[in-house]
Design a protein that fits this description.
There is one protein chain. The protein is of the alpha/beta class. It has one domain. The chain contains 11 helices and 4 strands. A 4-stranded mixed β-sheet has the order 1-2-4-3. Helix 6 packs across helix 7, helix 7 crosses helix 8 and helix 9 packs across helix 10. 32% of the residues are buried.
């Protein structure tokens, strides 16, 4: 009997050890790709800003995360460089929280006088450093357009080399629409979105797509954009993503938008 009790005790100890190790292993296992599961309810999404009651603080964001190429410091005057710093410090932590789980990459600002774009962002999905080039002729004292490019740096979507390439995630209309949505919602400087027109399409990209996404967020599901961003991080885009989020296809959503009063909050 005593021998049986000893054996049972040993087995109980070993079982407890195995369970403890399993729980520990599960808790410590590294999370791959997206750090928040896509299949979550709004209540499951804990945003640091909301849980602490204040936005994350950093001693000096520009010193920690922003590098200005020599060509930038040579091109812009002191006032403009201060505006660049102010824009970065104000908007970057917000975009990191809303679009990339609070993870912040090193950002390099450069100059490209040949591009016809206001600015553009480069940096692979797994790159720790993102490069944003500006065309100086589009900038004077307002650098709020950089909020769009900083959003691209935070998107790092699946199957997307730079986050906003023509063939990534069904087309650049998605990434560009999300980036303009971001600028409209989170950038304090005014940013107008065009009124609805019957000749528009959700694949028109940029401001047209952004306004459609704002409408979806306000009238279909207040977590629409949050889930869209999460879905594009977790999986390669298919048209089923919109059904997964809203129960409707993107064409059905656009039809609802077209038949509505098209109003969004100003």
């Amino acid at each position: 009997m005593k021998k049986m009790i000893v054996i049972l005790s040993v087995l109980l100890v070993l079982t407890a050890a195995v369970i403890s190790f399993t729980v520990f292993a599960e808790e410590e296992a590294p999370k791959l790709t997206a750090t928040v599961p896509f299949e979550v309810t709004p209540e499951d999404l804990v945003i640091k800003e909301e849980s602490t009651g204040k936005a994350p603080t950093y001693e000096d964001l520009t010193a920690k995360f922003l590098t200005l190429n020599r060509e930038v410091t040579d091109t812009f005057n002191t006032y403009q460089l201060n505006r660049i710093d102010q824009n970065f410090n104000r908007i970057y932590p917000i975009l990191a929280e809303k679009f990339n789980y609070g993870v912040m990459f090193d950002i390099v600002y450069g100059i490209d006088t040949e591009t016809e774009s206001v600015a553009y962002q480069m940096g692979g999905r797994n790159a720790n450093e993102k490069y944003i080039a500006m065309n100086p002729k589009f900038f004077s004292s307002d650098f709020s357009a950089l909020s769009h490019e900083l959003t691209h740096a935070m998107q790092v979507y699946r199957d997307s080399k730079y986050g906003a390439t023509p063939n990534a995630n069904g087309g650049s209309w998605l990434t560009e629409g999300v980036a303009d949505f971001s600028r409209y919602i989170y950038e304090p400087a005014p940013f107008d979105l065009p009124a609805f027109s019957s000749n528009q399409s959700y694949i028109d990209s940029y401001r047209v797509t952004a306004r459609f996404f704002v409408w979806c967020n306000e009238n279909v599901d207040p977590t629409f954009l949050e889930q869209l961003n999460e879905g594009l991080k977790c999986e390669a885009y298919t048209a089923k993503l919109f059904v997964k989020i809203t129960g409707k296809t993107v064409d059905e959503l656009w039809q609802m938008y077209a038949e509505s009063d098209h109003k969004i909050k100003s």
